[in-house]
Design goal:
33% of the residues lie in helices and 36% in strands. The chain has 402 residues and is of the alpha+beta class. One of its GO terms (cellular component) is efflux pump complex.
């Protein structure tokens, strides 16, 4: 009697078989739908927002075709045209100084005065001796004239005439010696006034007024440097000698510019004056001397300057900025942007480089757009976006450098 209700309860808890299958398929469909939705969601940013799939922003420069100046850079030293150490040729007391230190003086300008008194005394003594001998000479010549008259009258012997003639000649020699002594005394007196032998700028004085100075002292009285014009001496490698000599033999003036230590300011421009007669075997270089007018005193003796020598002008050269040139396993190349705004690789044969520009011998025709910035993300056939043309800015930079 009790077992029948229990069997009825078990049957009510058991689900039909069709219901279980339906639930299982619903779960599978929901999982598949969620996976598809997630996959599509993950693909959308890659296709629409990936930076690598977009065109590469680049700056380009048009290939230049103009005259290219080939420059040789060196370090030079400014040298005065003339350097004179003013020395006294006589000993004496320094009486007066007529210049100021650092003053620009002209040739022949009075610089110092040495006490002339001792030399005036010596001149007076020499002149007195000269006058004494002149009086003796006049007396001897008068006696000779009488002797010659008496000899014609046959009143005296020839020997007396000849003796008197010898005395006259002797006195003439003494008078000449006296004249030389007078001239020497005048010369010594003139040395007491010292004049500038050249025009230029004087340095610091080495003696003060009242000092006793000696003749030809090593220290001298003052130095004078001629700075108008002025020289700059520098050295170039010997392999540039033929190029430089060819230009000079044609009568061309080879331009040289002097720049400050930072190479930001051009101080002066000049021309090659001469080059040394031998190459330094220790360094393999040749010394060059250039002349600068230096009217504004921009160059100062013993100053160190950076030198740019315009050794050669390449007419109508195809050239691009050196920064645009890349080096790879196959050689040097550049990226260009074609008419479809896609990148292409051009292999190059290079010529001379100067002032940030490089001559292109082969590889470019002169009408291409060369990539200057943005090269890192480029590859052959990659689409590019030109964000700025660097032609204008580069041209202004070249003008400033020139």
């Amino acid at each position: 009697m009790i077992e029948q209700p229990l069997n009825i309860e078990k049957k009510s808890r058991t689900l039909p078989k069709n219901t279980k299958s339906f639930v299982l398929w619903a779960i599978v469909i929901m999982v598949i739908a969620f996976a598809i939705y997630w996959w599509k969601l993950s693909q959308v940013p890659t296709q629409e927002y990936s930076q690598w799939s977009k065109p590469v922003p680049v700056r380009v420069i048009s290939v230049q075709r103009n005259d290219l100046q080939f420059e040789i850079k060196a370090i030079g030293t400014v040298l005065p045209t003339h350097l004179v150490k003013v020395q006294s040729q006589v000993a004496g007391v320094l009486q007066k100084i007529y210049f100021k230190e650092g003053q620009y003086v002209s040739k022949g300008q009075l610089l110092v005065q040495i006490d002339p008194a001792p030399f005036q005394v010596a001149l007076a003594q020499a002149q007195g001796t000269q006058q004494q001998n002149l009086a003796q000479l006049r007396n001897a010549e008068s006696e000779l004239a009488r002797y010659q008259l008496l000899f014609k009258q046959d009143s005296i012997a020839r020997q007396q005439v000849e003796q008197q003639q010898a005395l006259v000649n002797q006195l003439k020699g003494q008078v000449q010696a006296n004249q030389a002594q007078v001239d020497a005394a005048k010369l010594q007196l003139s040395y007491t006034k010292i004049y500038a032998p050249i025009e230029g700028r004087v340095g610091f004085k080495q003696k003060d007024t009242g000092n006793l100075i000696q003749a030809n002292e090593d220290a001298g009285l003052v130095s004078i440097t001629q700075v108008h014009p002025i020289y700059v001496q520098f050295a170039i490698a010997e392999n540039y000698l033929d190029m430089l000599r060819a230009s000079l033999q044609k009568g061309e003036q080879v331009k040289v510019s002097a720049w400050d230590r930072a190479e930001k300011k051009q101080l002066a421009t000049g021309y090659v004056e001469a080059f040394d007669n031998q190459i330094d075997t220790n360094t393999g270089t040749l010394k060059i001397k250039a002349t600068f007018k230096n009217r504004d005193d921009a160059l100062f003796p013993n100053q160190f300057v950076n030198v740019r020598l315009n050794a050669k002008t390449i007419q109508n050269a195809i050239n691009i900025p050196t920064d645009a040139i890349q080096n790879g396993a196959k050689g040097t190349y550049v990226y260009i942007i074609n008419k479809d705004n896609k990148a292409e690789i051009r292999m190059l044969k290079l010529g001379m480089s100067s002032n940030g520009q490089t001559e292109i011998l082969e590889g470019l025709q002169g009408n291409e757009r060369v990539v200057l910035e943005g090269i890192d993300r480029l590859s052959e056939g990659k689409e590019a976006q030109v964000v700025q043309d660097a032609t204008v800015s580069l041209a202004s930079t070249q003008t400033a450098r020139g």
